[in-house]
Amino acid sequence: MRYICANCGYVYDPAVGDPMNAIPPGTAFADLPDNWVCPLCYADKSNFDPLD
Amino acid sequence: MKPSVASLYQAVEIAQDIPPLLIGERSNTNGSKRFRDCLLAEDFDGCLRIGLEQEAQGAQILDLCSAYAGRDETADLTRLVKLYAESVKIPIMIDSTTPTCIEACLKLYPGRCIINSINLEDGGRTLDKVCRLAKKYGAAVVALTINEQGMAMTADEKVATARQIYELAVGKYGLRPQDILFDPLTFTIGAGDENLLDAAIQTLEGIRRIKQELPGVFTVLGLSNISFGLPPAARKILNSVFLHEAVEQGLDAAIIDPGKILPLAQISEEDRAFCFDLIYNRDQGLDKSPLMRFIDHFAERVEVDEADETQEKRPEEALHQKIVRGDKDGIEDILAALLDRYPPLEIVNQILVPAMRHVGELFGKGELLLPFVLQSAEAMKKSVAWLEPHMQKVDQEEGTKVLLATVQGDVHDIGKNLVDILLSNNGYKVFNIGIKVPAETIIAKARELTVNIIGLSGLLVKSAIVMQESLPQYREAGLKMPILLGGAALTSEFVATSCVPNYDAPVVYCADAFAGLKALKDYEAGQLKSTVAAPKNGQPRMKPGVKDVNIDRSHPVPEPPFYGLRHVTDIDPAKLFPYVNEQALFRGRWGYRRTASSSAEDYLELTRTTVMPLYEDLKKRALAEGLLQPKAAYGYFRCYSEGNTLYVESDDEVMPFDFPRQSSPPYLCIADYYRTREEGGDIAAFFVVTIGDKIAVETRRLFEADAYHDYLMLHGFSVEVTDALAEYWHEVMRRELGIAVEKPADMTGYVTQGYQGSRYGFGYPACPDLDAHKMLFKLLEPEAIGVTLTETMEMVPEVSTSAIIAHHPQAKYFAV
Asked: I need a surface site. Which of B51, B226, B419, B551 has the fewest CB within 10 A?
């Protein structure tokens, strides 16, 4: 399931991961560390909405 | 021969003897969860079954849509088209906006189908491709009345857009009028939106006039939008009556769930009368709105689990429900009835305040969205205002008193004002003393008004520092009341470690307005405590960013069109809308987020029926009333870097812009993206843009008029249009520099910086210090476009933004 940042619209896609935070592809959103933040606007995980 | 579409097995006339032509809507990934689940499970037989069921229920054509993010639309849709072509007797409608996908399906289909749909949203680029395909394969097309300005709301706009499309499709691409089915768009009349009271009338009139003014064309409607927001049983009846009315005006086809339409004969005269009043917005000289009468009338029709909507509710419950639903209509009648039984203060404390607390709880559980909370607050405000003349003065002296201020140097007040709205409508006495308030003033006011709590707000990084550094002043002044801190740049860690030790009474971090409300409750219960740093796995927040440190020194420096500054004051505001980050606006600014209990389809429907019409309306209003006055001050200057400093050369002086460097790898600094003097120097580009003070004035007016919901909407809109202007102007400058080779295809492309270079806003993570504004204002003289600085270097009006633009391809966002 993809998640979208309510603050800036960045989409976290588990299939892609997040290279800006060194998150490898295949990492589910729920498995992202608690201190992970949006790579574009630095909003924390609570600002993300499920997309699919 | 009469205009028809056809499958391998049969032809179906578009103009039915007994209209309308029924187009089944359930074989659609966006409209049907069951269909989507089948597709995701690769259960194509299941997908086919949904089509066969609709055929059995009376559908004459089947809409087929497989668009779903992350899947290959063309692969899915061609597979489904093949399957449906073989096994379903009735023709299909290809529901896609991707020309390549449409063509792949048209090639396969052994008959004549309809393409759903074309519009002019992108100015006609997609329409051009799809019309050529329709001509080539002999297909019919559905055309939505949407153009670059957005969705057509009024009959005039619907007809004008239809005519625009007609002229292209018929005049330019050679389609026949009978090849086009115009959909003049349906918006809900079931949600109580003031701007949509006549939406049904406009749609019906649009149908009539399109048929009259564009002879030979057909009309179609996505029907069920009309009743969004109402209970299922009532929706079925309203949909059916509205369909009947639309057919009367000349509607040829309807996209519907064929199992959920009733023949008019099965609907009683009485039921129809309530539907007609709602559809035609007839008040019948009654106080209650047509919508409220409609809801009351059909209340008994709802399912057992919603049975609390009966008419014989006690007034106590009715008032509670009005507040929770944010429904102001007829609230005075209920209050008058209650006033016979209770003193006014008891109504406030026993019914209204608990109802607002319930609203807060629903929000906390993610079951209620912020815009609806604000509507509840408006209903609360209206109730209290109605009760106030009946109250004795002494009543108002009771209760906890709160002082609210945005700290010195900061002009941002949406956060503080949301706290004000929430607290004052939860029974607290709030003194909101405004923006840019120096600590001395706050201290003096807190003493004078003998408040119990102080709340400080501020958006900027700088404001967090102001809070931290002014707390000792509060201590030395001898204040003993708790202080609440809120703002985007604060974290609980910062408050706990840098603020709490500077003051003797509790200092509490509030992440949002609801946290402020909770703090007040804790205070009253004698349980308010200072924020403590929660050791979240002991990990500091991650610092995202490029890890690439070898910045190519040989990248060519582009040639600017001029050196020095220019002011541009004739920017067309309508050009900004395509650059608006709608996701950030809808979810972030407005709070229309997907709640825990809603599905992707629910959210889509909320967007389509509530959020988009709101947005469209705001765009129209902003243009019609001249609320947007976009202006830019910008320029190109010779420069060179040296260490962390970028030396910018203007006519008479060299200005040193110092940029911070990251304290951990890869140790980036904005200056790194520019060549040194030895490397031949570089060019620096800057801008200050603003959408003007007029919209800020209107925003303030809405807050002062207690129009909380509209206030939040207009404020969010103005902030995101300001960002859109920055995005737009950045693109103009990339074009002027000759580095805008290709435009990003969509908003996601802009969000992820899918262009050459980067734009760093002053005050943002890569250059948080606003002091650079002093030099920037010397360079660009933005006073000429109405932008000035506060004593802490913040721009006024708030709807302004500034940036330095780096052209180097490796320049992207990072944080120091």
From this structure: B551
For residues B354 and B380, give the distance between their C-alpha atoms in angstroms, rounded to a whole number. Answer: 11
Question: Dihedral of CA B290/B295/B298/B299: which sign?
Answer: negative
CB contact under 8 A, B542 and A10: no
pLDDT tens, position by position, A13-43:
999 999 888 899 999 999 999 889 999 888 8
| Mutation site for B-interface testing, chosen from A12, A49, A51 by largest number of B Cβ within 10 Å | A49
Q: In Å, how far is A27's CA from the nearest CA of chain B? A: 16
ipTM rounded to 2 decimals: 0.94
Is the Cβ pair B584, A9 closer than 8 Å?
yes
CB A37 to CB B541 under 8 A? yes
- Contact (CB, 8 A) for B714 and B729: no
Pairing relation of β-strands B795-796 and A11-12? unpaired
Residue with tokens 């003194």: B431
Instruction: Provide, as residue numbers in chain A, all residues whose Cβ is less than 8 Å from the Cβ of B815.
Output: 42
CA B730 to CA B53: how far, in whole Å? 52
- The reported pTM is 0.65
Residues, chain A? 52
Compute, in degrees rounded to 10, the torsion defined by CA atoms B493, B498, B499, B503.
130
Q: Kindly report the CA angle at B605 between B601 and B608, in degrees rounded to 5? A: 135
Angstrom distance (rounded) from CA B111 to CA B133: 15
Minimum-distance CB partner of A34 among B537, B588, B594:
B537
Helix, strand, coil abundance in chain B, percent, nearest 5: 50, 15, 35
Q: Which stretches of A1-52 are assigned E, i.e. beta strand?
A: 3-5, 11-12, 48-50
Instruction: Return d(Cα B390, Cα B387) in angstroms, integer.
Output: 5
- The whole-angstrom separation of Cα B420 and Cα B702 is 14
**Which tens digits make up the pLDDT trace of B287-317?**
888 998 998 888 877 543 333 333 346 788 8
DSSP single-letter state for residue B112:
B
User: How many beta-carbon contacts under 8 Å exist across A and B?
Assistant: 76
The span from the CA of B587 to the CA of B567, in Å, is: 34
Structure-token match 């309809």, residue found: B114
